[in-house]
Specification:
single chain; 383 residues; alpha/beta; 17 helices; 8 strands; binds 2-acetamido-2-deoxy-beta-D-glucopyranose; Transaldolase_1; schiff base
């Protein structure tokens, strides 16, 4: 009884929520465009033509990708974020030290205003870590501006110099969240970005337990992904392109088929592990290289189509938008979970000790079993 009444109410509650969200985001979008776009008119004009194309290209490869993978844009440029967010195909955005530094040093009046406000804020608060506070406040100011343009998550990095200091990381992460909340952005929309060091992962475990969601970044190896998932990270950001860079150097090889690209293989393995073992940790790759070499910028993106989320820089979003044709889904939860057997065999083959000693051990057991069986057979025949 109670349950069916709830079931009736739920869709209505969702519709109301949706309407409220649409109203709020519509209002803040209007405000954001007045504040940010005016001063970036030149850049914005340059993008107007492609923006028209954006809305027209409903069946672009970008639209196909967005239908299976939630997309995030990799830029701190508010005008560009706005332009892509308006297509409805981009859900999240991120700040990182490079983007914040660029914004902070750009001289562009929009960003200068964010810097000035951060300085004023830190001076007013005083204290002995005024400089660190000003830096965090600047990252949050940029994040707040971005949060008005996209409906989803916005990531903010804890000072990367604290990547090996759990206690300091916790302090700064909690402060970043309170700065967001002070500015009216709820913590449910913020991801605290932490490097996949042991201390970063340990800090993440505590933050997640407090309801502060984290984006574990700089993930290159399986062990980092597994630890992040086991300790409850909301999201990981593996970098297939940089894994490829490394393997190119180590193997002295320049090109791969996209499916064999070591970066693609690494991310697929993380994704499969999460699906197989029921971790809800989101697998969100970023950093892309052409597996087959120049002219194939979208190789890794296409080879991982279907993963939970992806972060893509504007230039590649544009390419996806301009290219037609079908973009097949390559990753899905059920097949990924089933692929673990192949993964086990591959890893086993790579492990000389496990392969050799398992075979040797089995042979010895089998030889003894055969001996025993022969002896019993004789006794049975005699009896
Ligand atoms: C998580 O961090 C990575 C690395 O900086 C970034 O590319 C990605 O967009 C972030 N994810 C979200 C949802 O903000």
């Amino acid at each position: 009884m109670a349950r069916s009444a709830m079931a009736g109410l739920l869709p209505r509650a969702l519709v109301l929520l949706f309407l409220a969200a649409a109203l709020i985001s519509g209002r803040s979008r209007g405000r954001a465009s007045q504040v940010f776009v005016g001063s970036q008119a030149h850049r914005y004009d340059r993008h107007l033509a492609s923006r028209r194309a954006l809305t027209a290209a409903a069946e672009s490869r970008l639209a196909q990708l967005a239908s299976m993978t939630t997309l995030s844009i990799d830029t701190g440029d508010l005008a560009i974020i706005k332009q892509f967010a308006e297509t409805g195909l981009i859900t999240d955005a991120t700040t990182n030290p490079v983007l914040v530094t660029k914004a902070g040093l750009s001289g562009d009046p929009v960003y200068v205003a964010l810097v000035d406000e951060a300085i004023k804020y830190a001076k007013k608060k005083g204290g002995d870590d005024m400089l660190a506070l000003a830096m965090d406040k600047l990252a949050v100011n940029l994040g707040v501006a971005i949060s008005k343009l996209v409906p989803g998550y916005i990531s903010t990095e804890v000072d990367p110099r604290l990547s090996f200091d759990k206690a300091e990381t916790l302090k700064r992460a909690r402060r970043i969240i309170s700065l967001y909340e002070e500015a009216g952005v709820p913590k449910s929309r913020v991801l605290i970005k932490l490097a996949a060091t042991w201390e970063g992962i340990a800090a993440m475990a505590e933050l997640e337990a407090e309801g502060i969601t984290c984006n574990i970044t700089l993930v290159f190896g399986h062990v980092q992904a597994v630890a992040a998932a086991q300790y409850g990270a909301r999201l990981i950001s593996p970098f297939p392109g940089r894994v490829l860079d490394y393997q190119k150097r180590i193997q002295g090889k320049d090109t791969w088929q996209p499916d064999e690209d070591p970066g693609v293989v690494a991310v697929k393995r993380m994704y499969a592990y999460f699906k197989k073992h029921g971790h809800d940790t989101i697998c969100m790759p970023a950093s892309w290289r052409p597996s087959r070499g120049p002219g194939h910028d979208l190789d890794e993106i296409e080879a991982l189509a279907g993963t939970d989320r992806m972060t893509i820089p504007p230039a590649f979003l544009e390419q996806l938008l301009q290219s037609g044709g079908e973009l097949p889904r390559r990753l899905d939860p059920a097949t990924a979970a089933a692929s673990c057997a192949a993964d086990f065999r591959r890893l086993m083959k790579e492990d000389g000790c496990a392969t050799e000693k398992t075979a040797e051990g089995l042979e010895a057991f089998i030889a003894d079993t055969n001996k025993l069986e022969a002896a019993l057979k004789e006794k049975l025949a005699v009896a």
